[in-house]
Amino acid sequence: MCWAASDVLAFEKVTRVFRGGAGVADLTFAIEPGEVVALIGLNGAGKTTLMRLALGMLRPQQGMVNALGHPLDAVPAEAWCQVGALIEVPLAYPELTVRKNLHIACLLRHASPDRVRESLNAWRLDPVADRRFRRLSLGNRQRVGLAAAMQHDPRLIVLDEPSNALDPASVILLREQLIRRAQDGAAILVSSHHLDEVARIADRVLLMNAGRLIGELDTTGQDLERAFFERVRQDDEQRQDAEAVR
C-alpha cells in the first residue's frame, strides 16, 4: 500500500527535560512516507526519549509533535493502529506462545489474524511458534517484538536499537523488512549504534548529542565511526565554549 505524500512524523522545537537536567531540547525534524531516518548518538544522548515523544509515551513541555497528520494530543485512537513500535524491550505475555502473542498483537491493531502465519514465516519463527515467550532466547524475543511491530503494515514504524541481540542472519532479515516497507510507503525512524548497518538502509542519518540534534552524517565516507565521534567532539567543545562565555 502507498500513503499520501506528507510528513508522517514531525517535531517542531520540541523540549522535554527531566529532574536533574537530562532530556531533549529544541528538536526539529520530519519524516516523509517511504523514508528511512536513522538516529545515532552515544548512550544517554536522548534517542529513546525522542522516540517516546514520537509515540505519545511522553509529552513535550515545549514545542509540537505531529503524528499521522495530527497534533500528538489529537491523534484519533484508530490512527494508532497505523503505528508499529519497539522501544527498548519487546512487550509480550511471557506465559503465552509466540503464535498467541502475535495473534493478540494483530487484534490490538485491528489487523487480520491471518497475518500471523505470514509473520512467522517472514521472521523465521516457525520453529518456536508454539514455545512460550519466556522460554525464548534474547534473539528470538527480539524477532517476536519486531514481527509484532510490523506485521500489520504500519504507516509509521519506530524502532529503538532493533538489531539488539540479533545474529547476522536476523540483521539481514531486519534490513530486508525495513527496505521493503519503506518501498511500500512507510515512514521509518530507527535508532542504532551500528553505523555501517544504518548506512545501508537510511535515507538520512541524524546525529544526536546531549539531548540535541546536531546535524546529519554523510554516509558516503569510508570511516563513519570516526566521522561520528569527531562531530560529537566538536559539538561538546562548542557547548563548553558557550558555557564558558556565559
Describe the 3D structure.
- This protein is an alpha/beta fold and 246 residues long.
- Residues 1-5 have low confidence and may be disordered.
- Helices cover 35% and strands 23% of the residues.
- The strands form two sheets. The chain has a six-stranded mixed beta sheet, with helices on both faces.
- The chain has a single domain (9-90, 155-245), classed as P-loop containing nucleotide triphosphate hydrolases (Rossmann fold).
Going by CATH, the architecture would be 3-Layer(aba) Sandwich
Distance between the termini: 53 Å
Low-confidence stretches: 1-5
CATH superfamily: P-loop containing nucleotide triphosphate hydrolases
Strand content: 15-25%
- Please tell me the total number of domains: 1
In one word, what is the shape? globular
Give the structure's gist in a few sentences.
The protein has 246 residues and is α/β, with parallel strands linked by helices. The protein has helices spanning 47-54, 98-108, 115-122, 138-150, 168-183, 195-201, 224-245, and strands spanning 9-17, 23-31, 36-40, 62-67, 70-71, 83-86, 156-160, 187-191, 204-209, 212-216. It has one domain: P-loop containing nucleotide triphosphate hydrolases (Rossmann fold, 3-Layer(aba) Sandwich).
Key traits:
disordered N terminus, globular, six-stranded mixed beta sheet, Rossmann fold, 23% strand, alpha/beta
